[in-house]
Records
---
Amino acid sequence: MRRMQHHFSGGVGLALVTGFFLSVLLAGAMSPQDPYRQEMEEQLLPPSWEHLLGTDDLGRDLLSRVLHGARISCLIALVSVNTALILGVPWGLACGYFGGRIDLLAMRLIDVLLAFPSILLAILIMAALGPSLSNVMVAVGLVHVPLYARQVRASVLVVRDLDFVAASRAAGATPVRVLARTILPNVLSPIIVLATLGTGTAILEAAGLSFLGLGGEPDIPEWGNMLTTTRQYVRTHPWVSLAPGFAITLTVLGFNLLGDHLRDALDPRTRGRL
Amino acid sequence: MGRILLILPTLWGAATLVFFAAHLAPGGPARSLLGEKATPEKLQEVVHSQGWDDPLLVQYGRFLWNTFLHFEFGKSYFSQREVSEELARCFPATVELATAALLTAAVLGVGLGTLASLKPGHVGDMTCTSVSTLGVSVPVFFLGLLLLLAFRNLPMGDRHDLALEVESITGLRIPDAALAGDWEAVRDAARHLLLPALTLATVPLAVIARMTRSTMVEVLQSDYIRTARAKGLHPARVVLVHALPNAAVPIITVVGLQFGYLLAGAVLTESIFNWPGLGRYLTEAVHNRDFHAVQGATLLTVSVFLLVNLAADIACLWLDPRLRKEFR
Amino acid sequence: MRLHLLWTRLALASLCLSPSVPASAASVLIYGRGEDSKKLDPADVTDGESVKVAVNVFDTLITYAEESAELRPGLALKWEGSRDGLNWIFHLRPGVRFHDDTPFNAEAVLFTFQRLLDAENPYRFGGAFAYSPSYQMIESVRAVDDLTVEFRLKYPAVVFLPNLAMFPASIVSPEAVKRWSKDFFRQPVGTGPFIFQTWTPHEKLVLKANPGYWDGKPGVERLIFKPVKENTARALQLENGVIHLMDGIDFADVDRLKQAAGVIVQTAPGMNLAYLALNCETRPFDDARVRRAIAHAVHKPRILKLAYHGYGQAGVNPLPPTVWGYHAGIEDWPYDPARGRTLLQEAGLAAGFKSQLWAMPNPRPYMPQPKQVAQVIKEGLKEIGVQVEIVSYDWNQYLDRVANGEHPMCLLGWTTDNGDPDNFLYELLDRDKAVKGSANNVCFYRNDRLHELLVGAQREFDPEKRRQGYLQAQEIIHQDVPMIPLAYLPLVAAHSTRVKGFRLHPTGVLRLHRVRLEDE
């Protein structure tokens, strides 16, 4: 029963994520209109055959905007997850492998960073960098760095003293080589799980920052941005909020379900129990 | 006890981070406040009035001194008022919202979790699982809009009807109105509080429900519950009187830990409902690049977050002697 | 599960079903507007939202008639000028007291004007005095006796009396200014119909009735100004009775509001202007050909249709036709991207260029939907190869930065202070007004010929000769295109049917002491 349910939710996650990537790839071909084009005669139209999701307050086609929003969210996810990986993974590897005082200090720093609620840390970074969509991506990435570092460090601690690592070290490999060739491949699966779950979170947090108006120009079809610029219409013209709102929800849900599924599938300790 | 000592370096680290965030801004704080083309005189004037022309270490020392010994963050550049004065005004609004959300989340979360635990795998359980999965996937800001759509009779935002004036004693609107005996104002405030509190409650509700479910499943399988059932006690009595109190400790811990999240999570909720609290103050300050205000609001939130979490830990130790031993 | 749902439903129902009835006996009028005030010191503000509050707290020596910009006695009962127009005697209204219970007298008038005119005055407000050129004709002010004041002018000036009716010349309480000094902007004390009570930024600004007001006790006990940024949200709040009176209506909402039960929509001819300012100090806008190219790329009919929903009139000159002296003979530069591209080519910018278009974040009376306007302009500019990024700041910051000349192009507008052409042309385009930090001439346009004409007209007492001067000025401006006038708007306000005695004023300034609020 549980197992079936588990496969089911993993399947739903996979389907949602596939849908997301399809709209990323085909946004250009599938959108009926230019997402920026305004039709003054067509403001706030309800969904119809011509505009499947309706139009917004500037007469822009919502389906086109939501589809292009997927591209922007994909970009957000790529930039922020990669920022977090590029900074967080080496940090965690180094701390876990070398240990000692530097490790202690670095872990204290991570404790401080994790003591901040993540949205607060992101807002603080935005305050320093200034509002724009690219800064939103960087801020979300930076917020995730300590999470990745901590996870990688923990995984490294597990494999560090195993025989094959010792063998590699005995064979005279430099620490960088040991880390890259021997340790990294063995801590890869938790990183993949974290990155999948992190993609959903990154999209969610970036949309949140945009919703607060920190995402730069108001006409960018980023989902959080779309929600915040039209939220005054929620009671009079609800479709304007529903389209981007469901787009975020389904995407985040997809990545979360898929991430959970991957975690269970890749983690040997939970494999047998479900 | 180690936990209490750990909070001090963490606070210090947070203060340091908050301080240097302002100075990391491209071109320095004055430049980002006034823009690219500010005249040198104006720049000079602001730099001087805000004390940004002293050596960085002196500024840092002064910042720590004022922050931790006087609870002062300087004047907001835009409103020309003391940041601490403005924080004192906004903070109660956030506390009221977070408290209401916590109560909602605790009551609904424990209820839902308990129901789910009665028959694992059945409808109640599935509901619980779906609600908690959805709870962490639906963005708070979209959920708020959905609730506005669903409950059209409730206000779109604000904390109360401006025409109803109530003397501020606690700064919390509902207790103040109740103290004044103005039931009209109490009801008005409750109407305004309902949707924001419900919105903010979703994430903690999901967490609390999950925790309650897993703890209760364990408790319900224990011997003494089987005994109670075997004695023919009413099932409701078994659950409410025998099982739930035994699952209380982990649940209370989780509830306590959620309060800190609520204070921080209020940023988005306050923005949706135009709630005049700390979160909205912070958002405005970031928009204006009003660094003293940003520093004050961030540090206050982080401190409260840390203190509340600490309090939750201590309460948990106090409730459960077994844990006390482990901690030593 | 079901039980819980039921409980929540019951709780919700009890809250939703019973409509809230304001029970308090005191009548409270809630005024919804697009933004908060910036400061409340009348000498230190230029933005409409601050003025809106200031005129209800303060009085001026001379005031306007209720429905026109004609002058009427205010704190001065009567006044007379000498033959050469250089000496003016004002007889003050006796028995008036400030809200702090200090007496209003010649001393207070003296104090107010010294504070305005002397930059070294110890009680000077924070910033520079943006309106100082409007009062630069004043040589000295003297108290003849307790209730008589004499103004001595440097040169005869037609705009002297109208400018005394403008809000910067509001009489402030000397005691309060001394007491609050730099904080006077948030503790304003005047003689006006309403007394300042509290101000919670971005939330509410509360005034209470001045029972001893010389022109009669106000019709409501309290007056609350509430900022609600989004127009549609504000309109909904009016329909739901959360606010009683609002300005800044989206024209898209006018029809719905007219239909709504319990709501009255009022319109009146306005004296305002919405425009696109080109910063003539920055490249490439220092070249008149580039500015004209931009003019050819702005699709005004589209702006009117999209952002003004057919209300309003396309702008041609920097003052509206409702103000005398408007040049009806000037023909506007038509929307013609091809011509625009040619002009850019002539200016050596065949490849176009990149720039920024600044747009205010919130609705203004002359521009209810600035973002939409900016969008249309952005698309038009694309047609001539000019790529712009739309930039927006918090309103207060926007004004500061624009007055500082940081923008290449910005949207802005103007509502008359006194109904005189001088208040548009001189105020918005004279070189005297292009001082960084306090500029109203945000085009930073400096034309000596125009300056001569405008200053000449200020000293000309023959109305026909003045008119000729202003017509010539408009021709120069039309050729030089420092700004692109976008629209003139009628004034629109909406209020609950409970609100009685509300009238729009062409200056857009609303004194609300005659407004009453009837019970439901």
Note: Residues 265 and 271 of chain A are 6 Å apart (CA to CA).
---
Amino acid sequence: MTLEQLLAETQPALLQIKQQDLADISAAKDWQSKYRVLMQLAKKLPPVPEKMKQAHLLVKGCESRAWLMHYHDKAQDKHFFVLDSEARIVKGLMAIMLCLVNGMTSTELAKFDLCHKFDQLNLKPYLSQSRGNGLTAMAERIKACCPVK
Amino acid sequence: MPVFDVQQFRQQFAFFQQQPDWVYLDNAATMHKPQAVIDAVTQFYQQHNSNVHRGAHQLSQQATALFEHARTTVAHYLNAAHSEEIIFTSGATAALNQIAFGLMHTELKAGDRILLTQLEHHANIVPWQLHCQRHGVIIDVVPLTVERQLDMLAYEDLLALKPKVVSFSHISNVLGHIQPVAQMVALAKAAGAITVVDGAQGIVYQQPDMQLLDCDFYVFSGHKLYGPTGIGVLYGKSAWLERLTPIFAGGEMIDTVSFINTTFNKLPFRLEAGTPNIAGAIGLSAAINWLQKHNTEQIKNHKLLLLKDFYSGLNAIKAVDILSQPVHNAGIVALNVDGEHPSDVTALLNQQQIAVRGGQHCAMPLFSHLALPGAVRCSFAAYNTLDDVNRCLLALEQAVEILTA
């Protein structure tokens, strides 16, 4: 499998998350429902094949490992990502982040504020744990893909 | 024997009044402090604060007396032959680093062997490795049996290779399994090895007797014995402590200094460079004095009771894979939910205010042996109640339900 194929599989999942699941998760009435949605999101994102999980793609969280691949469409200046994580809750949270940033231009990506976005989605409590679960590290890695002007 | 009054015991910990909603089962990481310890530390700063061993004034002499009294308290608790055999360090990790550094410059030469075990904490692996690589010393590792116990037959075979040092933990920080320390020390000594016991988890399980155990070195951290963080103990037989090269230099550990040569102070000071953690030592001493007012057999039985209930509850939850054995267990249970990453389980427990640890617990070689990404570790202390056990079990059931939905 190539990165292009993986991106092609990831894009519809991200679109669905953005258009449908984000509303579900914000509206979830209790923590159990929120986590159930997160689990579903993790399942929607196609896994990165083991062979493609090279060492330089590894983003280390405290307790679980995650991998990030980046594609920059230079003609349109758009950034696309695929990612995977060993842990499902983290992968669900990362899927949310990914649906927000995928397709962003360098300028948009540089301005992206994860904290603010998660606050809007009623997901702020999950960010407080993100030092440990690697979500913050993933956000930093994504932003680092944006070329410095 | 009268029954252990857990509520009376628990009331001495202000933490549980401040955080009544939490179930704290991360005791193998650090324990809570009773009021007696908090008061001793506060009192020192409020009434006696001065530097030790150097002031010309009476205040310093008082602080010195308190600090040295703390050393005596620890020495008595460990039944050390002399109080100079107690070196205050910042913790078990610092103590192990001092031993590895100290021996590598004196006792260990290229081609020598040292013997560790598969289930050691990184603090009992990496300090050795750092120096072994530089000095050409070989590390051998005692493997585990299928029951995840140390393979004692392999241990004896490896001792036949005549290691200069044998270093192992009393209790596995991941599995909670109690190692046969007395037997292991005796066998290692018969093979002519220097013996090092990592008592980080063992110290709170059992009061160790240095003269009976007869190991050359024993280390532990104060914060895992109801004491403050940043204080630990390196016990060593005087003859061995004398031969350690100090890892830190400066301050009180000096006898004479010129730019040609420096001579070191006598024990214990030669291994305590800089201003020591005076308040920490006093806090640790207060923890020991406080603990000795309680019946340790009652505490042990109470923890066994918690463990028994926890195991029977766990056995009733489908999809839980228990890594720790219920017998010869010091109160630590490592587990996984089948097919799930431990961090998903700990996140769901955290959501329900159950404090446990997940991951590899600074024991990566153990997890690569087990071929697992990690485990969830529930570790119990005397102040935990049956209600804590039940709440953890209910939370775990809820986590399993969400994960397997």
Note: Chain A has eight helices and three strands.
---
Amino acid sequence: MGHRSSIPLYWRLQKSKYNLVGTKCKTCGKLYFPPRQLCSECRRKGEIEDFSFSGKGEIISFTVIRAAPEGFEKYTPYAIALIKLEEGEVISGQIVGDVTKVEEGKKVKSVFRRMHEDGKDGVIFYGVKFQLVG
Amino acid sequence: MKRVAIIGAGQTKFDEHWEKSLRDLSTEAGALALADAKITSKQVDALYIGNMSAGRFVGQEHLGAMAMDNAGLNPKPAVRCEAACASSALAFRQGYMSILSGEHDIVMVGGAEKMTDLKGTGAIATLMGAGDQEWESSIGNTFVGLYALIARAHMKEFGTTREQMAMVSVNNHKNGSLNPLAQFPCEITVEDVLNSTLIADPLRLLDCSPITDGGAALILASEEAAKKLDNPIWVLGTGQASDTLALHDRKSHIEMIATKVAAKKAYEQAGLTSEKIDIAEVHDCFSINEILAIEDLGFCKKGDGGKFVEQGKIARDGEKPINTTGGLKSIGHPVGATGVRQIVDITKQLRGQCGKLQMKGIKNGLALNVGGSGATAVVNILGVD
């Protein structure tokens, strides 16, 4: 399982993994999700602060994973999409539910879900997935 | 300007080599290149080896020392270059620049990867190290998943069809069927591709390059050193460019900006335009990526890559022969070795050593090696005098 079972790694990302907290550059207004601590536009003139994304967005492309990496085998088939958030940033996310209902252009909202487990007796990792709306 | 020549080229058979280790493969490839160059190992000043993930595939790091030691070339300097699937084109470029700098006269550049010691799901997870571990791998995405997202976006934007993608695999297998070093030297049909197992919709098993063990190596020489030797192939231009690590952070999901930037630089250095390129080796890790490459290298208008394939223009008798020896799809894709393997094949084509696959009347060739879902692109152009 390697990196995905790392508790410190997950712990330091929990704000973003649990609640879609990204960052915003106060200088130019650019938003970042996943969060960045250096604004690519303003460089040293940038000033980064936390920014909470609403979790509402639209699917711009998707796939259905049928051959999964280690740790995700039991979840197949599952859908993964590029989601354009209403704030304009694009992120990768799993879409929960029936994979045959997933389509480009459909609206989604974020939901808090189990992501994977570290074996039978290990830690359970939670995070944000997305659900079709309407 | 100073010039650099390729004076030796070698490739192991690409295969599932249970009987050979990573060090066996890297040593074999290097020995083949040295023998081809007709020089002795003593004449080599340094080694650059491309490798993506030996640490995860076989638990071995410190690849420069490993390769140098097993080649019996100590105490000369050795460097490992890593840029995921573009690792060895990068090693080639670093070796090339070390000669241009005046530091070295003759260098060995190569690549090797040993992928089949891990079980399939382990290899899938390891390859995903080329993406963004924190935000792509962690949600269960895979490499074929990333290219599937690109494929669907390309189909929607430009009307690229499932059949056109299948034709990429058919073309490359047709060529690879005559390549004695290919892992899967067999012909396939469009129906075979469309009926193969779905891996990540819309991509199927026969859209995907395989998991492979193998090595490839080249000997590079300064113009002065090369003039004493026979039949050099010249490096006409090189370019490398970077883009965001994660696919979701790109400005566009239907083109590879890094390919465009690297190609522009390589074309400028070579004094050539895309129309003047005789043959190309492009990075068909997944069928859709050959279509992107055709467009982003400027062989056709953006969005017309699928039609370009359908019209047979990439065939060996077409207007722009691509992957004339089988591509990643048929030859196999030992990730860290592929970039140099592409250059080995262009070298052999330019020297007239490709047997049944020999292309006639060619003066130059281009190789595009892509790392990750497009975060690294390396373009190298070779030619004869």
Note: Chain B has a mean pLDDT of 97.
